[in-house]
Amino acid sequence: MQSQKLVLAQKQQLKLSPQMYQSLELMALPIMDLREKIQTEIEKNPALEMEAVRDISFERVVRAQGSGTIDPFENSSDPGYIRKSHHIDPDSKHKFIEGALSRPESLQEHLCQQLHFLILSDEELEMGELLISNLDDQGFYRENPSELLDPTPHRQDLIEKMVETIREFDPPGVCVENFIESLVLQAKLSESAPEKTEDFLRNHLENLKRGKISDISKALSLDEEDVEYIVWFIKTLNPYPGSNYSQAATQYVNPDLLIQKINDQLVMKLNDDHIPSLTLDPVFEEMADNTVSFDKDTEKYIHRSIRDANWLINSIEMRNSTLRRVGATLLKSQMDFFLKGPKYIRPLTLKDVAEIISVHETTVSRISNAKYIQTDWGIFPIKYFFSNAVTGTGDDGKDVSKTGVKEILRELVESYTGKKRLSDQKIADMLAERGIKIARRTVAKYRGELSIESSFERQSHSN
Predict the structure, then answer these.
(1) pLDDT by residue (tens digit) across 327-353?
(2) Computed from CA positions of residues 429, 431, 434, 439, in that sequence, does the dihedral angle turn out positive or negative?
(3) Per residue in 26-76, pLDDT tens?
(4) Residue 220 gets which letter from DSSP?
(5) Beta partners for residue 48, in sequence order
(6) How many CB atoms lie within 10 A of CB 287?
(7) Which ranges constitute the DSSP H helices of 116-152?
(8) How many CA atoms lie within 13 A of 26 on its CB side?
(9) Cα gap 240→243, rounded to integer Å
(10) Strands 278-280 and 372-375
(11) Which of 186, 104, 103, 187 shows the shortest CA–CA distance to 139?
(12) What is the pTM of this model?
């Protein structure tokens, strides 16, 4: 019979208080999510008060006084609004309708449009439309095509013919049963697909999930480097090709930082216009100073509410302060980027920034998550500015980041005017002339990440 005994053991364990957890959560929130979080906390905590802001445009008042009229229902953001006493654009109504009814193109509409460009018989056109209507939003079969109609030999031949036709449409990988068949089809359609990619997809994804690269290498009779290249190529494919045609509404980015050149100087600004300014409710502060007239539960509630309110205000300030410091470090470290453009971005890691501003690396990662910087070159995720160094140096003798190399590669392809196609090896040679030494396969990898077609596909389009 097994005996039971009591054992006493010591162990150390880190636990986060609710306030610390909230502080970490606020650090990771982008600007609009932070605004919603603040609104929720205001509704929960009566000790919080939002400072009143009078949203009045002085220029608008001057214009209204000058014209002698004020339209109380004015909404200049409405594409259909027409200001009174001004010239009426005859196309304004048409523009309003276009703006009001515009929506993303669905996958089925995109495929049907391509179908109608082909010269087909009425029977083929009808079959094509039936097959497209049978696809879900990802581009996969809802029902097996062979079960859509009576299985007569003629109809089966017609189904097979139109299935093959639709599979050649854009986006590649549609009109198949599942994501594996989609990846296989995309590999077949790609001129740059490595050897044995189909075998890999059909038989070795489970081993890949388990990290057994050596087992895959032996099974396919390939070097591990070749297997890694197949893995990289598969990552460039889209297992759900219809996802780019989602009916979801467009999501707009609100940059958290602005770094732009103004009067020949780079200026950084925290975009805090959307963040409400919080203070303590004076009534609650007065109540906290005179708790004698309250019972103990009410007194605890008052103090707890004020404590939580102060913690939230301090956490928001800590978030904004950390974001400013990260932005200032990026401004100094990536000055060439902000002045000259993306190809001048320099190697920079999370660890580098963490050491400069004296915080933990995870804090930099958290504050950079889902946040954006508006620059003179466009809006970029903060994490875009973190990139490892690539062997060699650029034209100016400084280290070049992976992101910078990709931008140089893009520039080489876009500016190339020769008649002979620009191969990956030729691109690697051109980069080597600039002091950037990378392998042909790395060029192919970067080209895929930039969505630049292979030399064969570029040559086909030019013809």
Answers:
(1) 999 999 999 999 988 888 888 888 899
(2) negative
(3) 888 888 888 888 988 989 988 888 876 544 444 444 454 444 444 444 444
(4) H
(5) 280
(6) 20
(7) 122-133
(8) 25
(9) 6
(10) unpaired
(11) 186
(12) 0.53
